[in-house]
Amino acid sequence: MSPTLRRRKDATAAPDAASPSRERRRTLSHTTPVLLLRAAHPRQALITAGGLAIAAAISGRPGREVGLVLATVLVGQAILGWHNDLVDRRRDATRLPSGKPIADGYLDPGTAWFALICGVLLVVPLSIQNGVPAGAAYLASLAVGLVGNVVLRRVWLSWLPWAAAYALYPFFLSYGGWGGDATGNPPEVPLVVLAALLGVGVHVLCALPGLVADHEDGIRHLPLRIAMRIGATRLLVLALAWTVLDLAALLVVANSVGLAQ
Question: DSSP letter at 188?
Answer without folding.
Answer: P
